[in-house]
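Appendix B, Record 12. Input sequence as logged:
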Amino acid sequence: MNLFELIKNRRTIKKYKSDSVDPAKVKKWLETARFAPNHKLTEPWEIVFIGSETRSELNHKMNFGNAPVLFAVLSHKGRNELEREENLAAVSCFIQNFMLLAWDEGVGTFWCSIGASERGKKVLQVSDEYDVVGVIAAGYPEEIPAPKERTAIDLKIKQLQ
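Logged structural output:
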């Protein structure tokens, strides 16, 4: 699939087949995702894979769609507010890269913010040095939702003189 089609066709998946995802593929996608833009090469992301006990303790209302792969992506807070914002943006790019790479190989993802709460951070054992940007579920889609309508980009563009 070309990049334009990949971006346009990627969907958030909320229900997964029980088929496992090859851990070597997941690692390959993470390896490649790390080439996301990040100011001064801070590489602020950390990955925490979530096992069944921690998953249960997170108590997600849909159990992450029963996805076979579940991990949290953390962002180092940095030395000041500007660095924190730059790091959060870089980690978001990292996550987007991962999601597109997985989708290109038929694996769907779901980006959930459950880990960002104080309770979520405690369950995930995240220190105060990090923000939880998302908990990512990944697996083979049981169902793929239809695309949702998006706002025309012309309505989002302005030109300054």
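Helices lie at 3-9, 23-33, 52-58, 81-104, 118-123.
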